[in-house]
Write a structure and sequence with these properties.
heterodimer; A: mainly alpha; B: Rossmann fold; 2 domains; six-stranded mixed β-sheet; transport (chain B); nucleotide-binding (chain B); P-loop_NTPase (chain B)
């Protein structure tokens, strides 16, 4: 029994609970929320955030952060819409967008790993550069995504929205990925880069890969966004960066790295979506929605931090008294 | 120590490493045979840690060759050394608390292809855990949940997983080792019998003689002698470490029998943070009291605790019971703390000399320093403008300003924690003069240093001079007046026999 309880007490648990409670609340307040249309709308609108939050979580787990992810999503969007507008086949347009994202991720990774530039500054810099590129590619919003893509995204299989299936697939993909060697190495590097280095890990390579993988996931998020909004724009995804960080933190991913799971970030993102939904269906003035959403998100972050308090205290003790071997004397060997 | 034609084992020739002007290793030669445990003994700053770091790839030597079974194995990063089967167990553990025991053990060489092989991981780690007597431990436990002494044994399990050809056990300050002596000894002997060349760096001579086959002594960055452990005595080793014959030991108490100036600091059963021992200590006005000991025996923690850096501390200051809750409250009670770690704990690198000098008196005590330029000059700082950033000065001049900052607060008690670390000789002298002058003006100074010669020089050998020697967080010996000498300080620092340790 204690074993089962122990398994439930993962870093993702608070976010899953928050999600479940808010989901039930939304269903009560807004009866149409549970309808196929309501569900399709909800998951369709928030799949991009779910994915980019996972991308952010992968990078944060490895000990970094990426402020350019929103800009990367925009880049994929404008490249794709522009190419499709010029009659390029959809498959090639997608490939071009993904490659552009991977290139930005590779540059971020190089700046942080080989260049030893703090992730916050390196990715802030690339964010501005990528924003500039987006404006050059597509100065004003416009263009349209292929209709089959838009229709497919909004459809469902046996009443289950495609976007919901995508969320489940994303979680499954992470579960598979978490069995790779690379995943363990990422957690090790994010937990303590020095100890990882002393253990023989190629720390710079792992760090670099985390940015490339993060950008790759962000490009999928961008395709979901494009299918949902059906158009392109030079600042279509700028706000996603901060939301992704918030979702990851609510999901139990520590800013300090090494703990938490992208699965938690998925539920953190869905929680953010539900809150916006709930506030809107409560009929609160749309001008005030942002403030209310922000306050609830803040409460969510505080709550999940409090739940993690015991493990946080543990790590605090460790840093406060690095040479405390004898304090443990008499403990069972 | 002749170079032999025999290619088997670890051969180190002409190893040299300098840190700035300081030579940590000079032309060091060492042979360690496969299937033997080789003890390394040496005092503070003898070069043991540098040697261990070079062999294990954490530090790159300036010159020298390392071969293992005739093949060059000089490594430029830990991963290379590990690939050659050269493994070090770190006493400042290399484990990741947020990962499970199994994940930690296999971290450097995770079994499997793209995906991890769970079956292989379990098989490997079960063997390694059993080998260090942790067969009962659940491999899925997070390391964060384990006590320190279990974590310490995990370091050995992790080392065994690499099938080490060379294993370096660095024990310098390890209180952990004592809790696990039997298991560690058994594990090391088994590895030796399997043909591993083991280098055991330690301090407790009795245990080293017991465990090791050969013992080498390091002094001033060189191996000065090698001994056959079976036929050597602790006395011989100690004499070799100090470089001179032993002085006779005398029992003494840290509590002053003769009082001089008024007593400023009085500690009774004061718990040393992160150490088992407690401290009894008196410091009188007008005195510089020395604190000696091997690195990591709690000297630093004691000083930091008195300055409120380890939470609330209760002690007697100027005859009053005081509680120091934080550095802020320590400063307001007239306590000053100068750390040798200038970068993180002393200077505000991009700020001016003037700002660095006046920060504490201006911002904490709201007492303006009228003429910072004159103060800087009186400190002997060589500078161009009061407004230049402190990072433009040499380490010695920076440290003079850090000390000057505290002198400006007119402290009752100044705690100097290896305050002259990494400072050139001339600046060191001037820092000493400033400390002695402060004492002469009626303050009490506690001067901790890992450099025995410096301690003796600063504290002196006058009738009232005192050096307390700390081991495992307790004063184990107090040297007074003409008993004070570099040799006696070193000798008192070393735990020669088990009878010396407190408890």
């Amino acid at each position: 029994m204690t074993r089962i309880l122990g398994a439930l007490r993962t870093s993702s648990t608070p976010a899953i609970v928050l999600f479940a409670v808010t989901f039930a609340l939304t269903a009560v307040v807004n009866p149409r929320f549970l309808s196929p249309v309501g569900q399709t709308n909800f998951f369709g609108s928030y799949l991009p955030l779910v994915l980019v939050a996972m991308a952010m979580a992968v990078i944060m787990v490895t000990g970094g952060i990426d402020l350019s992810l929103g800009a990367v999503m925009t880049l994929v969007n404008v490249v794709f819409i522009t190419l499709v507008g010029h009659g390029v086949p959809v498959v090639l347009a997608v490939a071009a967008g993904v490659l552009a994202a991977l290139a930005v991720g590779a540059v971020n990774g190089l700046l942080v790993s080989a260049g030893r530039i703090p992730p916050l500054l390196a990715t802030l810099g690339t964010m501005f550069v990528v924003n500039g590129i987006c404006l050059t590619v597509m100065p004003v919003s416009g263009g349209s995504a292929p209709t089959e893509m838009v229709a497919g995204y909004a459809s469902g299989i046996a009443y289950i929205p495609v976007a919901l299936i995508a969320v489940v697939a994303a979680i499954a993909a992470w579960v598979v990925f978490s069995r790779t060697k690379l995943s363990l190495r990422m957690y090790a590097v994010g937990g303590d880069a020095t100890a990882a280095y002393a253990s023989g890990l190629a720390v710079p390579r792992v760090t670099w890969l985390s940015y490339v993988i993060g950008a790759g996931i962000a490009s999928v998020a961008a395709m979901a966004l494009t299918a949902n909004v059906a158009t392109g724009g030079p600042d279509i995804a700028g706000t996603y960066t901060m939301s992704a960080i918030a979702a990851a933190v609510i999901g139990g991913v520590a800013l300090s790295g090494g703990t938490g799971s992208p699965v938690g970030a998925v539920f953190g993102a869905l929680f953010l979506g539900l809150i916006s939904n709930l506030v809107l269906s409560l009929g609160i003035s749309s001008y005030f929605v942002s403030a209310v959403t922000g306050a609830v998100v803040l409460a969510g972050i505080v709550l999940t931090s409090l739940v993690r308090r015991d493990s946080a205290l543990l790590s605090w003790r460790r840093t406060a008294a690095p040479q405390s071997p004898s304090a443990q004397e008499g403990a069972p060997a | 120590m002749n170079a032999t034609a025999d290619a088997s084992g670890l051969r180190i020739r002409g190893l040299r490493k300098a840190y700035g002007a300081v030579l940590a290793l000079r032309e060091l030669d060492l042979d360690v045979e496969r299937g033997s445990i080789h003890g390394l003994l040496g005092g503070n700053g003898s070069g043991k840690s540098t040697l261990a770091k070079i062999i294990s790839g954490a530090v790159v030597p300036d010159a020298g060759v390392i071969t293992l079974d005739g093949v060059a194995v000089t490594a430029s990063r830990p991963a290379d050394a590990l690939a050659n089967g050269i493994v070090i167990t770190y006493q400042e553990l290399s484990l990741l608390p947020s990962l499970s025991v199994r994940d930690n053990l296999v971290l450097g060489r995770i079994p499997g292809g793209v995906f991890r092989s769970r079956a292989e991981t379990i098989a490997l780690t079960d063997d390694a855990l059993a080998a260090v007597g942790l067969g009962e431990l659940d491999g899925e436990t997070l390391v964060a949940e384990l006590p320190q002494n279990v974590r310490y044994m995990l370091e050995f399990a992790k080392a065994i997983l690499w099938r080490p050809r060379v294993l370096i056990v660095d024990e310098i300050t390890s209180a952990l080792y004592r809790d696990n002596v039997a298991t560690v000894s058994e594990t090391l002997r088994r590895l030796r019998d399997q043909g591993t060349a083991i280098i055991f760096i330690g301090h407790r001579m009795g245990e080293i003689l017991d465990l090791c086959d050969r013992v080498s002594v390091l002094r001033n960055g060189r191996i000065t002698a090698g001994f056959d452990a079976a036929t050597t005595t602790e006395e011989e080793l100690l004499t070799e470490m100090i470089g001179r014959p032993l002085a006779e030991a005398r029992a003494a108490s840290a509590v002053d029998v003769v009082a001089d100036g008024p007593r400023v600091l009085r500690l009774r059963d004061f718990p040393t943070p992160a150490q088992p021992g407690t401290i009894d200590l008196d410091v009188h006005a007008g005195r510089v009291v020395g604190i000696a000991g091997l690195q990591g025996q709690g000297q630093r923690e004691l000083l930091r605790a008195l300055f409120g850096l380890h939470g609330s501390a209760h002690f007697e200051l100027d005859g009053e019971d005081v509680t120091v809750r934080s550095p802020h409250s320590a400063v307001r009670r007239g306590i000053a703390y100068v750390s040798g770690d200038r970068g993180p704990e002393g200077t505000f690198a991009i700020r001016s000399l003037g700002e660095n000098l006046t920060v504490t008196s201006d911002l904490v005590l709201r007492r303006r320093i009228a003429r910072p330029k004159a103060v800087l000059e009186s400190l002997g700082v060589r500078f161009a403008r009061v407004g230049q950033p402190i990072s433009s000065l040499s380490g010695g001049n920076q440290q003079k300003i850090v000390l000057g900052r505290w002198l400006a607060t007119s402290p009752r008690l100044l705690l100097a924690d290896d305050a002259t670390k990494g400072v050139d000789v001339a600046a060191r002298r001037e820092l000493h003069r400033l400390l002695v002058d402060l004492a002469a003006e009626g303050a009490a100074v506690v001067f901790a240093s890992s450099d025995e010669e410096e301690l003796v020089e600063v504290v002196g050998t006058d009738p009232g001079s005192v050096i307390h020697v700390v081991y495992r967080g307790a004063v184990v010996r107090t040297l007074r007046g003409d008993e004070i000498s570099v040799e006696r300080v070193i000798e008192a620092s070393l735990p020669v026999t088990s009878g010396r340790t407190p408890q």
